[in-house]
Specification:
Layout lengths: L2 E2 L4 E2 L1 H6 L2 H12 L4 H8 L3 H13 L3 E4 L11 E4 L12 H16 L18 H20 L51
Antiparallel strand pairs: 1-2, 3-4
Helix pairs in contact: 2-5, 3-4
Amino acid sequence: MTAAEGNGTPDPALRALAHPVRLRMLSLMWAAPFGATGLAAALGIGHGLATQHLRQLVDTHLVEPVEARPPGGGRERLFQTVRGRVLSDRDDDAPLLAEALASNLRHRSHRRLPGPGVTVDADLWITPAVWDRFRTDLAALTDDLHQHAQPPSARDAVPVALTVMAFRMGPDATTPDTAPTGPDESTADGTDQDGTLR
C-alpha cells in the first residue's frame, strides 16, 4: 500500500528510508553498531541532527539496540541495522527512494578515486526468465558484499560505493508498439527514438 492505512499519509518506514542521511546511517550500522555521537562524527553532521535521524530509524524498527557499548566505555546506547532486504522489499512510492538514492550517488561520486569501477545505465527488453536469473544473481552479489562489510575503522578496509535500483517497468510512450514511425524518427534533442545518440 502506498499510504499508511490508505488515508494518504506516507508509510513512516518509507519516509524513514527515503532520506539520504538515514540511508547512509543504515549502511554504517550494517557493519557495526553506532550511537548518535559516532554517527554524527562519521557523517559530519551535528549531534542533535544525528539523534533526530536515529530516533526515526528506531521508531520504524529499521535499526535495533545492541548490548555493546562505545569504545572506551560510556553510557550511550548503540544500534545496528535490522538484517533483511529492507530497500528491495519496498515497491511502493519508488520515486521517493529513487530521489534519496540519487542524492547519495551524487555525494559519493565526488569521492571517486581513479581506478576501475562499474558504471551501467540500461533500459532493455529481455525475457522474464533472463530477468529473474539476473535479479537473483545481482541480489546474491550485493548480499555477499554486505556480508564482507567492515567497520569504518577496520584495518585494511577501504570505502566503496554501490547504488543499485533494478526493476521491471510498465509500458512507455516510446515502446516499440507505440513509437512514432516515419522517414525521420530523430528527436530535436539529438537522439534517435531508441535513445541512441547521433
